[in-house]
From TrEMBL, chain A:
<keyword id="KW-0813">Transport</keyword>
<comment type="similarity">
    <text>Belongs to the binding-protein-dependent transport system permease family.</text>
</comment>
<feature type="transmembrane region" description="Helical">
    <location>
        <begin position="112"/>
        <end position="131"/>
    </location>
</feature>
<dbReference type="Pfam" id="PF00528">
    <property type="entry name" value="BPD_transp_1"/>
</dbReference>
<feature type="domain" description="ABC transmembrane type-1">
    <location>
        <begin position="77"/>
        <end position="280"/>
    </location>
</feature>
<feature type="transmembrane region" description="Helical">
    <location>
        <begin position="143"/>
        <end position="164"/>
    </location>
</feature>
<feature type="transmembrane region" description="Helical">
    <location>
        <begin position="77"/>
        <end position="100"/>
    </location>
</feature>
<dbReference type="GO" id="GO:0055085">
    <property type="term" value="P:transmembrane transport"/>
</dbReference>
<dbReference type="GO" id="GO:0005886">
    <property type="term" value="C:plasma membrane"/>
</dbReference>
TrEMBL record, chain B:
<keyword id="KW-0472">Membrane</keyword>
<dbReference type="GO" id="GO:0055085">
    <property type="term" value="P:transmembrane transport"/>
</dbReference>
<keyword id="KW-1133">Transmembrane helix</keyword>
<feature type="transmembrane region" description="Helical">
    <location>
        <begin position="138"/>
        <end position="159"/>
    </location>
</feature>
<feature type="domain" description="ABC transmembrane type-1">
    <location>
        <begin position="92"/>
        <end position="307"/>
    </location>
</feature>
<dbReference type="Pfam" id="PF00528">
    <property type="entry name" value="BPD_transp_1"/>
</dbReference>
<protein>
    <submittedName>
        <fullName>Sugar ABC transporter permease</fullName>
    </submittedName>
</protein>
<dbReference type="InterPro" id="IPR035906">
    <property type="entry name" value="MetI-like_sf"/>
</dbReference>
<feature type="transmembrane region" description="Helical">
    <location>
        <begin position="285"/>
        <end position="305"/>
    </location>
</feature>
Amino acid sequence: MNSSKHDSIGEKLFDGLNYLFLGLLALVTVLPFIYIIAGSFATEVELMEREFFIFPRDPSFSAYQYIFSTDTVSRSMINSVIITIAGTIANLAFTFTMAYALSRKDLMGRNVIMNLVVFSMLFSGGMIPGYLVVKELGLLDTYAAVILPGAISAFNMIIIKNFFQELPPGLEESARIDGCTDLGVLWRIVLPLSKPIIATFGLFYAVGHWNNFFSALLFLNDHMKWPLQVILREIVMLSQMAAGDMGAMDPNFVEPPDQSVKMAVIVVGTLPILLVYPFLQKHFAKGVLLGSIKG
Amino acid sequence: MNTALQSEIEVSARQGIPKRRRWLSKLKKDKWLYILLVPGLLYFLVFKYLPMWGVLIAFQNYQPFLGFWNSEWVGFEHFRNFFANPDFFRLLRNTLILAIYDLVFFFPAPIILALLLNEVRLAYFKRIVQTLVYVPHFVSMVIVASMTYVFLTTSGGIINELVAAVTGQSINFLADTDWFRPMIILQMMWKDSGWGTIIFLAALASVDMEQYEAAVVDGASRFQRLIYITIPAISSTIVILLILRLGSFLDNGFEQIFLMTNSLNRSVADVFDTYVYFVGITQGAFSYSTAIGLFKSVVGILLIYGSNRLAKRFGQEGIF
């Protein structure tokens, strides 16, 4: 946007410092990840000797072997996968059906319901009443307890509703003339047109489930149902394996490589996010822009 | 479809069909839409509005075995107890200090970053930096806290090794009460200042390039262009985000503080949110902790209305 020929020395200096600062910032963002990944493949001896390194001298999988030597971590990963898949499907089903119904301006009672939704964004009953509702429904210690209370993000629902409202009305009308019910229109016309937005919100909801810690802490006392994030905290921050001392019964037990094990668990928790990040990145600018249209 | 409905209504009105019948015919016509609405509506009623009703236990001595209907009503007793409790001032202080730190140090970070990114002319450099700084937003708070622990521990954490190499002794960041607040704010900046730029960069992208060109013709310096074109272009976005931030002024991010709290830094770490969890869930004082939560929600709603009116008074568009 600027013509670079007429830059003064001051501007050149600013540009140089700006590039330097942003470059360093990008480095500060990624270095922790790189160091953690490298450290997870290092031996404990190397971590003690060489504090600063990027490539381990003799890469070893001992940390990973250690964390998968019992099923604490793998079980929690399975729990996380179940919660993520079931939770995302529930999110999409709840959010899209409601958004479609509310996208129809002539729907009787629409304004009342929209006001209910918006008010719920401003005021909430808080942690304890929410906990008691889940408890009274008998959902404690079930996967449903970490899925249902967050089934709809009001904000997402409103964005999707606005998206539906902007679809060309002619398509729906011609389908209706062909004898489609509202359900048929949603299934055959609207949803196929919404594939990108389904992918976007599906990914965002899925990341939310994979990362969710608080609901699991609140609603799951049963260790067997704990997702990875809870186990991760147990191992790294409370420095203990949740299912008791994992080596005690195992005759082949080797002293845990402390730091590298922690790093390996962090890698296991982060990797799925880093793997979907390119797809997320493709969608999120769009998603956030859609959100800002709301007004 | 609209016209079909309208003519239907007109016909029925002309024929003098009672109102109730029209109501029913509308319900019948849209029956699939209402069926689609049921799950979502149930969700909001059960998981949003039932807890709002449940807030009334703040005025009770709620006993789980007696249930909501049979528990004894005690009026404002829990609120009085809470305000008289020395914990109240500690919590208020911790919450407010963190919120002010957040507003002063974290809130401007994405704005500054977006302005710096906006000055970058090499498109690929800008894209790479953006791609990298967005990543931490998607990583869970547990991961962020875990990495902080691994890096800052006094037993072999890399940052502490660096500190020790420079100053000769390591600092126990994780337990030190002086380091708790800077640590929280730095975590927030690392995690979300990149992500926060998106909304500002979107606002900047919509600025008409001709404005800049005209300014160049008029001899405006780059700094003047920043002050008179770029910043006004994002000022309404800043105001909206500021209102939203003020509305949740007392929300300090439960997960982050919960994860970074330990027995040594508790005196500065306890905030309303985590206190509600410890007293309510861990100790089972449901009514008392609900009262604390309600106090916080009411203050929050007052703050959002107040800041919205303030924004309007200063000639900005509010959010409602």
